[in-house]
């Protein structure tokens, strides 16, 4: 899986899983465009990555805004000459009773998590189709598209929408040699892994809680040129939790 000189755009790349994805692709020799609304954290991740790879650039981007997404892709093209890979990682959540969730809050979550995936994919694909070998798009969904806890309606709807949008885009963009896939993470710990309890790990069939690096390896697989036969899929990376029957005792 060779990513040397591949141009990778990652939204929500300043924190959490996105931060690890940016560093992981940089270590593989890729050219990274870090996109995030958090300017301070975005500039910091650029400085951190530059230790290993000088080809990293930050563009402050609010993915709720179409004009900023268009500008992000234009700047990527101007900076690196092409767009090869897009990781739609930006997302927010709000756990609130459906009796109390406002229309504004619903729209904020859907616009950030779902609408942005369409807009970023549309704009990136315009440049990917110029490439001889097309490109790859990966959308970060969630196992919450299939199973829920209380008060997660907007988040669940956004992630379910991402999975549907993924297979639709895979069909629409296939003729341009652009693969489109989704990853549905389960519990991926982005805080202090050492603070997790024994029971946290044991409830997973895999025997452990997930790490952002698990998602990075899944992204490598789905964006590798030799895996261009894989498109329209949703890869669940959850340690087996969505396949486990759970009964209250």
Question: What can you tell me about this protein's structure?
Answer:
The chain is α/β, with parallel strands linked by helices and 249 residues long. The chain has a single domain (7-243), classed as 3-Layer(aba) Sandwich (Rossmann fold). The chain is 41% helix and 15% strand. It is built from seven helices and seven strands; from the N terminus they run E-H-E-H-E-H-E-H-E-H-E-H-H-E. It has helices at residues 16-27, 39-50, 66-80, 103-128, 153-173, 198-202, 212-223, and strands spanning 7-11, 31-36, 56-60, 85-88, 135-140, 178-185, 234-237. The protein has a seven-stranded parallel sheet with strand order 3-2-1-4-5-6-7, with helices on both faces. Helix 5 links the parallel strand 5 and strand 6 (178-185). Helix 3 (66-80) packs parallel to helix 4 (103-128). The longest helix has 26 residues, at 103-128. The N and C termini lie far apart (46 Å). The mean pLDDT is 96.
């Amino acid at each position: 899986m060779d990513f040397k000189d591949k141009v990778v755009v990652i939204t929500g790349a300043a924190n959490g899983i996105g931060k690890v994805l940016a560093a992981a692709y940089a270590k593989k020799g890729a050219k990274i465009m870090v996109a995030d609304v958090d300017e301070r954290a975005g500039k910091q991740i650029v400085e951190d990555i530059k230790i290993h790879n000088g080809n990293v650039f930050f563009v402050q981007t609010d993915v709720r805004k179409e004009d900023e997404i268009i500008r992000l892709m234009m700047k990527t093209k101007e900076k690196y000459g092409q767009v090869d890979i897009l990781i739609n990682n930006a997302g927010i959540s709000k756990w609130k009773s459906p009796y109390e969730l406002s229309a504004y809050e619903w729209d904020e979550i859907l616009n950030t998590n779902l609408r942005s995936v369409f807009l970023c994919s549309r704009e990136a694909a315009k440049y990917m189709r110029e490439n001889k070998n097309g490109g790859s798009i990966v959308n970060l969904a969630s196992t919450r598209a299939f199973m829920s806890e209380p008060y997660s309606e907007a988040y669940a709807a956004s992630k379910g929408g991402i999975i549907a949008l993924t297979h639709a885009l895979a069909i629409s963009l296939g003729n341009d040699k652009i693969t489109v896939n989704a990853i549905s993470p389960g519990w991926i710990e982005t805080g202090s892994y050492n603070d997790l309890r024994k029971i946290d790990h044991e409830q997973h069939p895999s025997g452990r809680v997930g790490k952002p690096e698990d998602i990075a390896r899944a992204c490598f697989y789905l964006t590798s040129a030799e895996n261009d036969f894989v498109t329209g899929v949703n890869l669940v990376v959850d340690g087996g939790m969505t396949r486990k029957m759970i009964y209250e005792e």
